[in-house]
Amino acid sequence: MVVRLVLWSLADTMVSVAELRELLREEEAGAFTDVPGLRFKAWVSDDLTDRWGAIELWDSAEAADAELPGRARELIGKDPEIAETFDLEATLAGAPELSHLGLAFE
Questions:
Q1: What does the alpha-carbon distance between residue 68 and residue 1 come to, in Å, rounded to a whole number?
Q2: What is the dihedral sign for C-alpha 27, 75, 73, 47?
Q3: Model pLDDT for residues 50-70, shown as the tens digit of each residue
């Protein structure tokens, strides 16, 4: 399993955190429910620094390379400043399907 972190600076774009939040609420969240290999996705933001991004949990690095649905990247108009993939070491979530995953538990 792998974790992917993507993060944009919106300071030099024509879109705001508030606009992306509305897009997420109205369109995006449902678009990710059936993406093969995607176990978890959390969107993150910081209004003070104009940053937007996501933390994703994937079954494999190959799955994480898939093209994702949604319009956020199009509205932002550029690739993220940070787009990194890490091996998952461990999860200790309250949700049973997300708990005890990762290399430490193999």
A1: 18
A2: negative
A3: 999 999 999 999 999 988 888
Q: How far apart are alpha carbons 45 and 52 in whole angstroms?
A: 4
Q: Show contacts of 67-71: CB within 8 Å, 24+ apart.
A: 68/32, 68/35, 69/28, 69/31, 69/32, 69/35, 70/27, 70/28, 70/31, 70/32, 71/23, 71/27, 71/28
Q: In degrees rounded to 5, what are phi and psi of residue 55? A: -120, 125
Q: Which residue, 87, 49, 54, 84, is CA-closest to 70? A: 54
CATH code given to domain 2-105: 3.30.70.100
CA distance 44 to 89: 21
Say if residues 106 and 19 touch (Cβ distance below 8 Å): no
pTM of the model: 0.87
List the domain boundaries for the chain: 2-105
